[in-house]
Design goal:
Rossmann fold, 2 domains, 7-stranded parallel β-sheet, 5-stranded parallel β-sheet, binds (2R)-2,3-dihydroxypropanoic acid
């Protein structure tokens, strides 16, 4: 059995595959893998571990019908046409749970960095701009006691809410399809309409999947309903916000600041105006990038792969329906 891995994963995952007698082909070029290359390598293998954004669409799947499993080195699966995979009876696995805390840490970090202009001021020092003490310059805003709005209160949203309630006594409101009873009980979180979330949040943090329903949800009209003093945080997927609208809203003072770990598109262009705005902090999609979390993700990705190649149920299937089909 042979697996194609689209970008090097931590050794713990490679070791598990090796111990299971699976041959590994890895993409190690210092450039993105093209779609024809993805198809070409996948055709030579029985499984794919997709690390990073690879387009696993209907075309790819039809070209690679033979795959016994597609294992994602991520919790998000918006890059996969899950319905098409299910139709072809290809199980798709992901890595839920293990990256919730670290991703929430990044949301929290971006909230503070934006509120205190941290990245901008760091760059100001590099450019020789720290000249003297100015009591009225570079002022940020405080978070304590303010309202945190969570769009999509699942595991990551819960971790962000817990950090904000604990550290800054923030009032938690959220918008979800269903109630999060744990957050309501433990954090006194209040479920609100999308309109209310926009109107009431001082910090609005996005923690939902990218889907047809959430794509471009934070656009001009959404930002216009937010407070001029508010901060928008997105650590989920860049496609959930309209970046042109976000830039314009920040430039025109419609909202106060933003913190992004995900951009639209990725990678972000080095000349993007967001990178030089004082009240904005941007990171290159590092939510899960800790040694501990990436090891845990590699382990799950390998375990999903081994199970799929053995014809067993994946420990973490995205499309468990494949097992219901006759
Ligand atoms: C995930 O796991 O979905 C992270 O965003 C990394 O892609």
């Amino acid at each position: 059995m042979r697996v194609f891995i689209t970008r090097k994963i931590p050794d713990i995952g490679l070791q598990l595959l090796q111990d299971a007698g699976i041959e590994v082909i890895e993409w190690n070029e210092r450039k993105p893998l093209s779609q024809p290359e993805l198809i070409e390598y996948s055709k030579q293998c029985d499984a794919v571990i997709s690390a990073g954004y690879n387009k696993i669409d209907a075309f790819f799947l039809n070209e690679c019908k033979h795959l016994k499993v597609i294992s994602l080195h991520s919790v998000g699966y918006d890059n996969v046409d899950v319905a098409a995979a299910t139709k072809l009876k290809i199980p798709v696995g992901n890595t839920p749970g293990v990256l919730s805390g670290p991703t929430a840490d990044v949301a929290f970090l971006l909230m503070l960095a934006a509120s205190r202009k941290a990245f901008y001021l760091h760059n100001k020092i590099i450019k020789g701009g720290w000249l003297f003490f100015e009591p009225t310059a570079d002022l940020g805003i405080e978070i304590k006691g303010k309202t945190l709005g969570i769009f999509g209160l699942g595991n990551i949203g819960y971790e962000m809410a817990k950090r904000c309630a604990g550290a800054y006594d923030m009032k938690i409101i959220y918008h979800n399809r269903s109630h999060n009873l744990r957050a309501e009980k433990e954090l006194n979180a209040e479920m609100v309409s999308f309109e209310d979330l926009l109107k009431r949040s001082d910090v609005l943090s996005v923690h939902t999947n990218l889907s047809a329903e959430t794509k471009g949800k934070f656009d001009k009209s959404a930002f216009q309903k937010m407070k001029p003093s508010s901060i928008f945080i997105n650590t989920a997927r860049g496609g959930i916000h309209n970046e042109e609208d976000l830039i314009e809203s920040l430039q025109n003072g419609i909202i106060w600041g933003a913190g992004l770990d995900v951009t639209n598109p990725e990678p972000m262009d080095k000349d993007n105006p967001l990178l030089t705005m004082p009240n904005v902090a941007v990171l290159p999609h590092i939510g899960s990038a800790t040694v501990e979390t990436r090891n845990a993700m590699a382990k799950i990705a390998a375990e999903n792969t081994i199970a799929g190649l053995n014809g067993e149920r994946l420990p973490f299937p995205v499309n468990p329906e494949v097992y219901d089909q006759t």
